[in-house]
From TrEMBL:
Contains large globular domains required for ATP hydrolysis at each terminus and a third globular domain forming a flexible hinge near the middle of the molecule. These domains are separated by coiled-coil structures. Belongs to the SMC family. ATP binds at P32, N33, G34, S35, G36, K37, S38, N39. Required for chromosome condensation and partitioning. The lineage of its organism: Bacteria, Bacillati, Actinomycetota, Actinomycetes, Jiangellales. It is found in: Cytoplasm. Residues 167-199 form a coiled coil. Homodimer. This is Chromosome partition protein Smc.
Amino acid sequence: MHLKSLTLRGFKSFASSTTLHLEPGITCVVGPNGSGKSNVVDALAWVMGEQGAKSLRGGKMEDVIFAGTSGRPALGRAEVVLTIDNADGALPIEYSEVTISRTMFRNGGSEYSINGQGCRLLDVQELLSDSGIGREMHVIVGQGQLDGVLAATPEGRRGFIEEAAGVLKHRKRKEKALRKLEAMQANLTRLQDLTSELR
Ligand code: ATP
């Protein structure tokens, strides 16, 4: 599995549609300070489902939409499209090429799609979670983040390892199932109260 291309439209400083073609192996993005190198990495994290504005170096989620410059007005939406080569079947989907897209509108609406089919954020996260590109995004190490990894608590460090090993997904599912069970138990107790009141 490798990332084949990344297209940015209205995402941060990329007002015009810009496509980066990536080959297997190492890709380096070079450019002057402030030219948008980190914005490319932000786009990658964003299209894969990143939900934290802070992780995307913004104050609020809408900050990913092109805010305009002196010569160009602000745009109303941001879109990022990521194409992944899945010839080795690393992603659990019957396609040798997978295209994930995410669009955000300035009014707050958001859309995701996998291979052109509209889907939920959860579907994108589930698709990627076994590939090592989990929702915690530990595969993207930003400037200064290495210090954070080194200074992490033992629990935090365990989180990194669990995600890399693919355990985190199951832990999250277990937590969700336990929460549902608790809610069900509360409903049952309520039902028992009502039944005894009726007797
Ligand atoms: P450095 O080498 O200094 O780390 P960089 O190449 O990584 O820089 P980025 O941080 O990716 O640069 O890009 C910063 C630029 O992106 C700034 O000029 C900033 O104004 C612009 N930018 C960020 N968000 C938006 C937005 N929503 N609309 C327009 N421009 C934006």
